[in-house]
């Protein structure tokens, strides 16, 4: 019964979805240069935390962009911190409400490092050989879909904001109105760790009420296909200081007698993680859930990218050789961000340093809490003979203990991961499958961390991640860019979501 029903229902719907996609595509094909010019104007507004006036100008510009499209929009103020932008489009008869999240702030820039020296003057470029060449934006006609717009924020994360606007325009131009209630929430402090998002969420609970959040940030798959991610790893930072002698000592006169803090630190680092990335801290994996059958099937169904990435990155080997990247990021991770002791090369001195420092980031998976991880790591160090302190070690502590380490923890964020068979997961993938005419890629989790746990735990709402930016967009670095085809794909996908998500997401009345 069910297959018959599914086929009978899906077939006309699929045709309808593809007709929608084709019409949105034709609409966009007729105005590509115009879209690039308008996007460039938006990118010209600097969006770094050190320039709050410009951040605010971004927010008010987005309010204008929404209002121009008939969306009720305003700022959600947050004291001295950047406001969020809220927009709402109510659809008579719709039974579902979705909040679409993106952020308008970007990472800091150093203009000297950027090609052209102006991170906020958007520039269209095409790859010729191995060089990105500046291209004028023509008055009309089609653009090379592999061309890219270079500017801070182009990929992370103004791309979804403009793609949503053009999806609304395309629907209107083709005589449609969205078939679901849509709320927009555009944050202005994501790159600063969403440090003050909680009061905005708490103060606007009713306004933000929804069945699910669609979190539009992060990369599409390395194969350049669209992907839905059902979670993101949490993260937590750790800074360590290991103590040596009270003053730096001559390594000839005191070597082999005075402990070298650099060597002690190297032993400490080596005790945390094996060469395959397995974390050696007792109990670290106790809370880690094995992947579900659906998650494993999703990972195995992803296009193979590992060998191409390995070649591109000049890696002679990867950790845990047989495992795929997509499987590895479903596990917790421990990364050594940096180590510092003494000096090297021209500044190297034959001395035993007074201290050595290391910086780590942990990546957490569902059920691992920052508190629990902290206690496991500290217990591990104590079991290995370390005296652990959270303040600068006193003289008495340094005299009384063989090995002394100071630990400074970051606040930490938990991971999120919704099940692949949650109603929102099923509805979103069905909508995109139908639009694409083939299954959208399903990724159980992104490796990176997003403020998803904060939103999920504050509002108690399921959250799925739908990124549109190219994976190689240099986000957070110089020469950030957006590949045009990613913007075009994003417009078509958002139009499909606005028109078809509700139909795939029946509200079951008891
Ligand atoms: Zn981002």
* Total discrete domains: 2
How many H/I helical runs? 15
What is the percentage of strand-forming residues?
A: 15-25%
Tell me the CATH architecture of the largest domain: 3-Layer(aba) Sandwich
| Biggest sheet strand line-up | 1-2-7-3-8-20
Distinct ligands: zinc ion
How would you characterize the largest beta sheet? 6 strands, mixed
Distance between the termini: 23 Å
Which spans have pLDDT < 50 for at least 5 consecutive residues?
1-8
Helix content: 25-40%
**Cα-based radius of gyration, to the nearest Å:** 25 Å
Could you name the CATH topology of the largest domain?
Aminopeptidase
Q: What would CATH call the class of the largest domain? A: Alpha Beta
- E-strand count: 21
Cα shape = globular
Please provide a written account of the structure:
Helix 4 crosses helix 15 (484-500) and helix 13 packs across helix 15. It is globular and about 85 Å long. The longest helix is centred in the first third of the chain and has 28 residues, at 2-29. The chain has 15 helices and 21 strands. Strands 1-2-7-3-8-20 form a six-stranded mixed β-sheet, with helices on both faces. It has a five-stranded mixed β-sheet with strand order 13-15-11-17-16, with helices on one face. A four-stranded antiparallel β-sheet has the order 5-4-6-21. Strand 1 (72-78) and strand 2 (81-89) form a beta hairpin. It has 510 residues and is of the alpha/beta class. Residues 1-8 have low confidence and may be disordered. The protein has two domains: 2-232 and 416-504, 3-Layer(aba) Sandwich (Aminopeptidase); 234-312 and 327-409, Alpha-Beta Plaits (2-Layer Sandwich). Zinc ion binds next to loops.
């Amino acid at each position: 019964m069910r297959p018959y029903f599914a086929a009978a229902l899906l077939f006309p719907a699929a045709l309808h979805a593809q007709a929608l996609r084709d019409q949105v595509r034709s609409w966009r094909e007729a105005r590509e240069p115009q879209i690039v010019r308008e996007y460039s104007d938006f990118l010209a507004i600097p969006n770094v935390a050190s320039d709050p006036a410009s951040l605010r100008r971004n927010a008010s510009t987005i309010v204008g962009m929404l209002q121009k499209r008939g969306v009720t929009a305003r700022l959600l103020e947050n004291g001295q911190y950047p406001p969020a932008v809220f927009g709402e489009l109510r659809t008579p008869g719709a039974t579902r409400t979705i909040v679409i999240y993106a952020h308008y702030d970007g990472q800091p820039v150093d203009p000297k490092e950027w090609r052209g020296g102006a991170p906020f003057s958007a520039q269209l470029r095409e790859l010729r050989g191995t060089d990105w060449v500046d291209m004028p934006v023509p008055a009309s006609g089609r653009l090379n879909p592999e061309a890219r717009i270079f500017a801070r924020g182009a990929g992370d994360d103004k791309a979804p904001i403009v793609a949503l606007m053009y999806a609304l325009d395309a629907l209107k131009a083709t005589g449609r109105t969205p078939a679901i209630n849509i709320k927009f929430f555009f944050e202005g402090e994501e790159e600063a760790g969403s440090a003050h998002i909680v009061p905005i969420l708490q103060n606007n609970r009713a306004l933000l009420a929804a069945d699910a959040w669609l979190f539009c940030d992060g990369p599409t798959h390395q194969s350049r296909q669209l992907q839905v991610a059902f979670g993101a790893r949490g993260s937590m930072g750790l800074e360590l200081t290991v103590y040596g002698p009270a003053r730096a000592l001559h390594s000839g006169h005191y070597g082999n007698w005075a402990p070298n803090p650099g060597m002690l630190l190297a032993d400490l680092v080596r005790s945390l993680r094996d060469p395959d990335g397995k974390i050696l801290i007792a109990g670290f994996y106790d809370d880690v859930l094995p992947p579900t059958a659906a998650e494993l099937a999703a990972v195995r169904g992803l296009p193979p990218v590992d060998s191409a990435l390995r070649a591109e990155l000049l890696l002679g080997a990867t950790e845990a050789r047989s495992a795929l990247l997509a499987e590895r990021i479903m596990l917790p991770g421990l990364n050594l961000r940096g180590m510092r002791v003494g000096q090297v090369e021209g500044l190297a001195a034959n001395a035993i340093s007074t201290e050595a420092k290391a910086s780590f980031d942990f990546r957490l998976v569902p059920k691992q809490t920052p508190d629990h991880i902290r206690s496991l790591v500290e217990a591990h160090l104590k079991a290995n003979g370390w005296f652990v302190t959270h303040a600068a070690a006193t003289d008495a502590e340094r005299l009384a203990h063989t090995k002394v380490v100071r630990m400074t923890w970051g606040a930490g964020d938990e991971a999120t991961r919704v099940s692949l068979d949650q109603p929102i997961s099923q509805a979103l993938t069905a909508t995109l499958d139908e639009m694409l005419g083939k299954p959208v890629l399903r990724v159980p989790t992104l490796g990176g961390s997003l403020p998803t746990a904060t939103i999920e735990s504050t509002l108690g709402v399921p959250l799925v991640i739908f990124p549109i930016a190219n994976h190689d967009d240099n986000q957070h670095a110089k020469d950030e860019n957006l590949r045009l085809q990613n913007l075009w794909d994003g417009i078509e996908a958002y139009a499909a979501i606005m028109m078809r998500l509700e139909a795939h997401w029946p509200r079951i009345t008891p």
